[in-house]
Amino acid sequence: MKKYHFIGIKGAGMSALAQVLFDIGHEVQGSDIENEVFTEGPLRKKGIKILPFSEDNIVEGMTYIAGNAFKDDHPEIKKANEMGCEVIRYHVFLADFMSNYISIGVTGSHGKTSTTGLLAHVMNGDVETTYLIGDGTGFGLPESKYFTFESCEYKRHFLSYYPDYAIITNIDFDHPDYFNDISDVVDAFKEMASQVKKCIIAYGNDPYIGEIKNEVQDMLTYGIESDDDIVAKNIKVTEDGTVFDVSIKGEHFDTFRIPMYGDHLVLNSLAVIGVCYLEKLDITLIKESFLNYKGVKRRFSETKLHNMVIVDDYAHHPKEIDATLETARKKYPDREIISVFQPHTFSRTEKFLQEFADVLATSDKAYIVDIFGSAREESGTLSSKDLVDLIPGAELMTEADLERLDKHADGVIIFMGAGDIQKYEKRFTELLS
């Protein structure tokens, strides 16, 4: 048993890893800002100590895992280095940790968290699987031989990993504060793919996946009504979710039911089925696991109050918003769909301004709150009004005037964003209650 201190324990990946290490028997604590963050709930539930940042937290006898958001001049990191303590960056530690397992990394510009959560849940229906999800959830099983994890492309962190398998959900231009353009993103994914030991499972209709397929030895592609290796056919939307047939390499494999709506969630399921097929897992148990899947945090998380459906969703890129709205339309075809969107970072808002406007315009009504900055960039040259001006009928909204949403009495109100949009949702829910 070792003693670990996490510097920045409330970060989603850090929180998840802390839980994994705690579950398999290590002593774990950590430090972070004092503001409440949704990732700290599971830590507190397990009794993992969370301290305010302080140099006094640094003592002899601990291994320090440092979050990637903090530079070497952070007081705790600096003190630990000065004392000669072992300080390991999150992605470096994770790379070493996963070498003890059959590892499956889930990467892609969008859909990583949803797919990782689904993969972890479904695999655990048959084999013990330790997992680390980007919504701050982690679970360690001492006897497991499988490890599934969310593998992030930002700053090329995923190049630290050499997994047995990798799922690539899609390749898109995001993180304009780091990547130069789409070719820079594709180059990063090519290098990541070259480090996968066994097989890549990738979305076949992605415009850039062909470039990667030409450079790797083993890849299975998946798609809907396509000529890919793993294909969903005869898709039917039901009251309880979606039903579809799956064929693998041209032959009927099985019929699956999932308690979810939307083509992107069918695609995520195909990626998961691909891993289970390659590892020859018990398909009867896998099908049962799909049926009781409840989703991950902040991915179309629903609350029903009076006759309203209130949804919390992490969508913060135009394609993610599109997928979320598709789910809402398919699940609630007869209801009004209302978007309450918080743009995340000035650079992303500026880069995709027209794309945000186009997709939000497909809502029946769009409300936009102030842009959420980040530790990397606290200000920019535009505001949320620039986005509102491009969306017909859209309105600016603040915490003080959330009661305007009351007029959508039978609607589906979707609070979307990667910042602190939850405070708006929480306040509105309190007003309704």
Automatic annotation (TrEMBL):
Query: Membrane-spanning regions, if any?
Result: none
Instruction: Please list the residues that bind ATP.
Output: 108-114
Compartments, record wording = Cytoplasm
- Top-level EC class, please? ligase
SUPFAM superfamilies per the record? MurCD N-terminal domain, MurD-like peptide ligases, catalytic domain, MurD-like peptide ligases, peptide-binding domain
Q: What is its EC number?
A: 6.3.2.8
Asked if the keyword tRNA processing belongs to this entry, the reply reads no
> Does the record carry Ligase as a key word?
yes
Which keywords does UniProt give here?
A: ATP-binding, Cell cycle, Cell division, Cell shape, Cell wall biogenesis/degradation, Cytoplasm, Ligase, Nucleotide-binding, Peptidoglycan synthesis
Reactions mediated catalytically: UDP-N-acetyl-alpha-D-muramate + L-alanine + ATP = UDP-N-acetyl-alpha-D-muramoyl-L-alanine + ADP + phosphate + H(+)
**InterPro entries for the chain:** Mur-like_cat_sf (IPR036565), Mur_ligase_C (IPR004101), Mur_ligase_C_dom_sf (IPR036615), Mur_ligase_cen (IPR013221), Mur_ligase_N (IPR000713), MurCDEF_pg_biosynth (IPR050061), UDP-N-AcMur_Ala_ligase_MurC (IPR005758)
Q: Which residues form the Mur ligase C-terminal domain?
A: 299-417
Q: Name one Pfam family in it.
A: Mur_ligase_C
According to UniProt, this protein's pathway is: Cell wall biogenesis; peptidoglycan biosynthesis
All copies of domain Mur ligase central, residue ranges: 106-275
Domain annotation Mur ligase N-terminal catalytic: ranges = 3-101
Q: Name one GO molecular function term.
A: UDP-N-acetylmuramate-L-alanine ligase activity
Free-text function comment from the UniProt entry: Cell wall formation.
Question: In which family does this protein belong, per the annotation?
Answer: Belongs to the MurCDEF family.
Family annotation (PANTHER family): UDP-N-ACETYLMURAMATE--L-ALANINE LIGASE, UDP-N-ACETYLMURAMATE--L-ALANINE LIGASE-RELATED
> Could you tell me what this protein is called?
UDP-N-acetylmuramate--L-alanine ligase
Q: Which gene encodes it?
A: murC
